[in-house]
Structures are given as C-alpha cells and as structure tokens.
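Side project, low priority. Logging it here so it doesn't get lost.
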Amino acid sequence: MIDAEDILSVAAAWHQDGEQVAVATVTETWGSSPRPAGSRMAISKSGKMAGSVSGGCIEGAVADVAGQVMATGTPKLLDFGVTNEMAWEVGLACGGKVKVFVEPLT
C-alpha cells in the first residue's frame, strides 16, 4: 500500500503530465473502518487511481464524486454511514461511519 504522502506525489506527477486530478482524504471514522483517518486516494479524469480510502463500493462512489469535483472545481465532503446489517453490502467490515473530503488538485 502506498502511504498518504506518496499518493500526493503520484497525484502531482499526473497533474504535471496534464491530467485533471482529485484527491480524496479520509477525515473521520467511527466504528469499523478499513482505512484510518488520513488515508488518501488520487483519481485522474482518465480513470487512474492510486491509494485507498476504504475499499468496496465506497471507493466507487468517491471516484464518481471526484469526477464532479474535477468538472466543477468545488470540493465535497462525503459522509458514509451504515448499520451492521448493511455493512457488507457497501464494503465495510461491520457498521461504522467514514467521512471523505474530495478536492481538485490545482
């Protein structure tokens, strides 16, 4: 796994190569969370991804929002919360909450 600082280096390299890039950062967790606060994921407009904010479909949702963030330039704070019963369906090991901040790299 690439550490959070290396993700920023990867994102910067993509950006320097002319890619539009967004960076997602886990800002807060509660209960079960596969990735701790501070974990990062970089997403490029062409579909490249590096790093991880949780795994499962949460990352798919984050990638979708990253596309919107790159298009508008407006950052977004995402809040994912699930019950124990719904946890496996969305990719969390058991019930918990994860907040992810998605921002464009400019």
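Brief comment: Strands lie at 21-31, 40-44, 49-51, 76-82, 96-104.
Revisit when time allows.
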